Batch of 4 targets.
Target 1
Amino acid sequence: MGNRLSKIYTRTGDDGSTGLGDGSRVPKDSPRVAAYGTVDELNSTIGMVLACEGVDEAVREALTQVQHELFDLGGELCIPGMAMIEDTDVARLETVLDAFNEPLPPLKDFILPGGGMAASCCHLARTVCRRAEREVISLRHVEPEVRPQTQRYLNRLSDLLFVLCRVLARAGGHGEVLWQHERRRKPASG
């Protein structure tokens, strides 16, 4: 392994800037930092799913692979010009998604976040993933050299996380929490 951090604080960011992987410095609120920061947040929320009791080994294996790929994706966003996420990574997500989705019954209603701790944490990861995707899209507007594979990966990952929410809710014995759209149509009493 290359350089190791022996000192955690450097004070170089006290002026509101941060160093990218290529050595350049940018404001901490730049679109690039927002994008890879949100990918880091996403990785942390997936860690919360993995910390939950009773997560099936197949789900655990899929999400651990995703965590590694998110670290690569964050590195790609942190180092302008770097290419780490490929079309094969997106295709792998599609294969995993299809395998988890195939045994599930078709959806007839919207699902509310819930269904036990693991499913709830996965819903949180799904929403953070959507935000990471939006951040990457915003970054691509100002820095078009950002590769489309990152955006496609996050889009597909949010779909996988949605399916895993369903899987985890069912596996945890809580079931999916369905939106009760008919509740609004009840006549007012009184």
Target 2
Amino acid sequence: MSQATVHLLRHGEVFNPDGVLYGRLPEFHLSDRGVAMAVRLAEHFRALADDGATMAYLAASPLTRAQETAQPSATALGLDLNTDERLIEAQNHFEGLKVSASELLKPKYWRYFRNPFLPSWGEPYREQVARMRLAIDAARLEALERGGDGAQAILVSHQLPIWVTHLSLQKRQLFHDPRARECTLASLTTINFEGSEVTGVRYSEPAAALLPGAASTPGA
């Protein structure tokens, strides 16, 4: 059976001086540090290619921060940058708010907390996993068609969709403490396949040197 690898890349740091939960809002661009993170990831993937990896397919969420994170890798690898709507950030009823305990305790938001296991404040976890798995499987097949056995794909997405997909692949419960997510800015969640079967999931932080001092809005 053919082997393939799909890398789930979280976008880099976003310029967000007001600290809002930007969710699917348009025109949230990478900060200078976020651009540096994107360049560091491009260098990482270029090094893999130089070592013999076949980097065959690249796609990103349609949101600005994901597209800007993907562009340096597209340039470094000579790949077209495809857009996949299935990689988009999770929908969230608190989008646009500067989230704080005092804000969330307002009665107008209470209805969104009726079922935290779903979660009721946004797109259900299982729906996020379902669309991400469709994107992952499509990328795997596209990479194999373009690059043959052993080909690799890169998908640029967002923290929550990546993390719940990671949990699902490890057959863990999807409900979790957001503070415990192993999915920092510009991190990689790498999925190995043999045929259509997942044979391994690993996590890495190629841009770790740029993380100290970086801003990361919870849920973004």
Target 3
Amino acid sequence: MSETLRLLIADDHPMFRAALRYALGEIAPGASIVEVSSQSALEAAIASGEEFDLAMLDLMMPGAMGFSSLVYARGERPELPVVIISSNEHPRTIRRAQQFGAAAFVPKSAPTTMLGEAVKAVLAGDIWFPPQKAERDEHDAQLADKLALLTPQQLRVLMRLADGLLNKQIAYELSLAENTVKIHVTAILRKLGCHSRTQAAVLVKGLSLEDEGADLHGSTTQ
């Protein structure tokens, strides 16, 4: 692999990031690695304009709601392949990750050889997912299609709206004028086919992992 590879790791557990960095050093020697530990830090890294060849995302970072980090990354940088690294190995989680645009899914319990297979496949332009039996979910497909209509800024506004923030709070967090936030909210509701902020928030809850049947209280480290 090229020594100029730039990789982005997004995980809130320092020990797991260190383990992943070590593993990637074996897989892609000489690669440059940027680490972030929250949704806001991920947004800043992606918005910085820095070029990355691959992003590796945990699903349970602070500020993220299930697949929101994946949806945001794909919306902001559709050319950037995203590998999900998660302790939630439920077949439906794996299927949903694929439907929301991930290029690969690697369980945190997987050996380094499996991680290497996934990374090499994705960098070669392929996808990589472990065998799983969950079927395609039409509700998830429709949600993914709706979210794809939003601009990256609208996605940022939507995620904060789903957290229950008021327009002035969203404006403060995103350094926007309150009127700009109002305009974004109006556009978001129209694109999502929602009649209220509450309805949009409920729609976003479809990104959560709460019905996957796995331990959602934190990720495990290897």
Target 4
Amino acid sequence: MIDITTADGTFSAYLATPPSGKGPAIVLLQEIFGVNAVMRELADFYAAQGFFALVPDLFWRLQPGIELTDKTQEEWQAAFGYMQRFDTSLGIQDVQATITHARTLPGVTGKVGAVGYCLGGFLAYLTAVRTDVNASVGYYGMNIDKFLGEAANLKKPLMLHDAGKDEFNPPEKQKLVADFFADNPLVTIHRYPEMGHAFARPGGAHYDDANAILANGRTITFFKQHLG
């Protein structure tokens, strides 16, 4: 764990380092469960692929160090409560602070990407249009359709992974986003028709190994292309 200092205070981030000790960096944007074992496992995965991987504690303004799972109803209720209280604009400021910090880490080659899941998938889009990130990837992000007015600020590549049977982000909303970006060369959208929300969450109820491997492979290729 490392500390990142902002004008509003200091928050923690989990850092995974690539075996070579050098490479681009990726900021991982959490689900609604905080910086838990799943997010740390994903960071370790990206580090093994040659990236520095940082997972900032984006709920620190509500309560630092939240670690929940998707295994009990009580934890789901707590997670939704944090999500409802989460200030998106302040969260993106913290993402920018993490991106800026990542560029100063010894061994980081300069370029920084962002990848988010669930809540983080939505934040990945906002990161793409509100920060100086070099490339962004969002997995099954919700509510992107409500923020398409900010798309004019998109200057760097964006990839989205949509779950065709996402109970939190229905197909009609996915189509709105896909149609909006259909002619934008910066945006790539992959749809997984039979998948439910969080199909790439290791150990989750909807986890699908084949589609998770496919999506993650696309993400790694995307980052190697744009952060290399």
